[in-house]
Amino acid sequence: MSARMVLLGPPGAGKGTQAARVAEHLGVPAISTGDIFRANVAEGTELGTQAQGYIDRGEYVPDSVTNAMVADRISQEDCREGFLLDGYPRTQAQVAALDEMLASSGSRVDLVLEITAQEEAVVERLLRRASEQGRADDTEPVIRHRLKVYAEATAPLVDLYTRRGLLVSVDGMGDVEEVTQRILAALSRHDLVG
Fold first, then answer.
1. Taking the alpha carbons of 42, 46, 48, 49 in that order, is the dihedral positive or negative?
2. Beta partners for 32?
3. How far is CA 1 from its chain centroid?
4. CA 193, 173, 6: angle at the middle one, nearest 5?
5. CA 92, 72, 33, 116 torsion-angle sign
6. Partner of 76 at 20 to 30 A CA spacing, among 66, 68, 120, 154?
7. pLDDT (mean) for 82-107
8. Are 51 and 73 in contact (CB under 8 A)?
9. pTM score of the predicted model
10. Distance (Å, whole) CA 121 – CA 97
11. CA–CA dist 137, 148 (Å, integer)
12. Model confidence pLDDT, tens digit, residues 109-150
């Protein structure tokens, strides 16, 4: 069975952690645009240089860069049976680009999983992560700006995917295993896991 999924939720909702766990259950790769950007920054690539300024300000990397990167990644062999996208799409223009990418191979998004979280809990999580991992892009002003950008640009995707009948929302508050079990239960109701 194939599973082409999108994972939505504010920064700090636990998407990265859950993406890895859910992708393993589904037998598909978890694709995080944030991880790809950070790897390019660390390696000093042209993409990394372009992305760094946007990331430091808590802004989204331009669609032209992001769309090309995602198109290349999902065309790779390990994505033949599906994938779980974490951090993409983030705007309605990116939704349209993803639809086109998938239509060109005769496929489409099967499900959109939204992980919800309370804003203050998210800020606390991200500040703790910044301290533990030494992430310069996770200061409180940048975190709050990222949450505002998310609300303005990405939250409307919840409405779009709801209208398409693809959205499933799961509460992201609680310990990791508890949230994973909620997600797997929701996916089993949509015949994506056994």
1. positive
2. 86
3. 22
4. 45
5. positive
6. 154
7. 93
8. no
9. 0.84
10. 32
11. 15
12. 999 999 999 999 999 988 998 888 887 767 899 899 989 988
Of 24, 27, 190, residue with least CA distance to 113: 190
User: Which residues does residue 111 pair with via DSSP β-bridges, in sequence order?
Assistant: 5
Distances from the Cα of 82 to the Cα of 1, 27, 31, 150, 154, angstroms: 9, 8, 11, 25, 23
- Please list the residues that pair with 171 across neighbouring strands: 116
What is the C-alpha separation between 191 and 76, in angstroms, rounded? 25
Report which secondary-structure segment, H or E, holds 71.
helix 63-74
- Provide the token pair at 124: 């606390």
The single-letter DSSP state of residue 62 is: P
Residues labelled catalytic? 15, 90, 129, 135, 146
Whose structure tokens read 């194939």? 2
For the four alpha carbons of 53, 55, 59 and 62, in that order, the dihedral sign comes to positive
Q: 167 and 112 in contact (C-beta within 8 Å)?
A: yes
Neighbours of 21 (CB within 10 A): 18
Answer yes or no: are the C-beta atoms of 33 and 67 closer than 8 Å. Answer: no
Query: The tokens of 11 are what?
Result: 């920064």
The predicted structure's pLDDT at residue 30? 95
- Per-residue tokens: 7: 């994972």
Q: In this structure, what DSSP letter does residue 171 have?
A: E
Residue 91: helix, strand or coil by DSSP? coil
